[in-house]
Amino acid sequence: MKKNTKPSFMNSTFWISAILVFLAVVWGAADPAGLSAAANAAYAFTTDIFGWFYLLAVLFIVVFLFGLALSKYGSLKLGKDDEKPVYSFYAWIGMLFSTGFGAGLVFWGVAEPMSHFVHSPLALEGKTPEAARVAMQYSFFNWGIHQWSVFTIVGLVLAYFQFRKGERGEISTTLNPLLGKHGKRGIRKTINILAVIATVMGVATSLGMGILQINGGLDYLFSIPQNTPVLLTITGILLVTYLTSAVTGLDRGIKILSILNLTMALGLVVVVLALGPTTFILESFTVGIGDYIQNFFGMSLALSPYQGSTWTKEWTVAYWAWVISWSPFVGAFIARISKGRTIREFIFGVLIVPPLIATMWIGVFGGTALHMDLFKGGNIADAVQADVTSALFATFGNFPMSTLLSVIFILLIVTFLVTSADSATFILGMMTSEGHPNPSTLVKVIWGVLMSAIVAVLIISSGLQGLQTASLVTALPFTVILLLITYSLVKTIKEDHSPTIKSESVPDFVRKRKAQ
């Protein structure tokens, strides 16, 4: 393979992606209702018709990954056989956690279980102990192994082809065993452009939602108004912060912020566990994990064709669409930081540890909120229904040092958003620089500025929701791509390693007999 000497973003992937994103933003700014209506119609069509496909595909990926990790191929390195991991385990997990979850888990850690507490997935009566138990079970499920399986498969395939095969870090190169190393330029370009568009739209809307939550917290704590000037000010501060981090590079800015994120998150979990209803949290967490494991496959394939319920499509299918549309970004970043790890270590590290942290977060914060409403006459569920951005702040309002905890929480949201945006500028730079592992500072700055500009325009026009829904439409073609790259990985591993591994596993006396 011809090595890239200089990363260049002056290529059609960059320009076509930038133009399409620009047109979508113009549409969102000029006619937010029109964009939202069109995006909702397209998204509703894909989920209504293909919701079953999302569920089957994601479950298949989960089963495949566990099978691969436990197979004889699990010991293969993502890199040369003697290479060591570039980052420590804690730093690696911190970067996984920060990029994969972003501010989403912080946003929904209380809001989701409280939403299910009011509107039960199993059509139970709301605000009852039974509804609370099911709310925890499904919150664990939606933020658990299935979600991370999508990021894992994309990251694994990219890392294998990039570090084991010496290919460029593009989604399209993982399909070389199916497409051939040369030709099919139109298909390759389409795949890469889809990846860029999904990343830009997904990160921009997540930034926007996080900014809304920061403003909601400032309003809750300090009566700072929730209006456009304040939102734009927060956007500008975040832009300066994440561009500063992006300029310092992967090994300093993103790594340091990720370690800080993980440490702050675990610290908040410990503090709330100690100050809150500790026994209830631990017991409800234990029951929730048990319900999650016991109903793992049932929840994986739960649809309601007989009852006509739309809950699964509104929550689980929507989550799977979100993680699939985000998978090129998160997967590419995970691949970039995982050189030197074995396939087994990669799969178990990515597939188990972040979901475990997520269930701990939901168990502590969501469990605290449920306890307050069930036994203390709280009204957190009502507060969530009125304004989802205030969910965790309303929970902290019942604690000593509530203001201090809320301020730390706002700082955590900021660092999550900065890390996500910083990681996105890095990966967008890679995607639009022909897969170069170290894109130039200029291209990272360009994408960083574009993302904040998109957020600013959509905040002014109230078009965030439409663009967010539009980004989910890319999930359907990417689901097909996920299955194709899975097959591509299996095909490549077998071709590369089966003869060697099989010959090593044959006993000496058999080889001698064959030789005679």
Automatic annotation (TrEMBL):
InterPro entries: BCCT_transptr
Membrane topology: Multi-pass membrane protein
Domain of life from the UniProt record: Bacteria
Chief localisation class: membrane
Record field: transmembrane: 51-70, 90-111, 145-163, 191-211, 231-250, 262-282, 317-334, 346-366, 404-430, 442-464, 470-490
Database matches in Pfam families: BCCT
Keywords: Cell membrane, Membrane, Transmembrane, Transmembrane helix, Transport
Compartments (UniProt record): Cell membrane
Keyword Transferase in annotation: no
Keyword Transmembrane attributed: yes
Protein family (similarity comment): Belongs to the BCCT transporter (TC 2.A.15) family.
Protein name: BCCT family transporter
The organism of origin for this protein: Siminovitchia sediminis
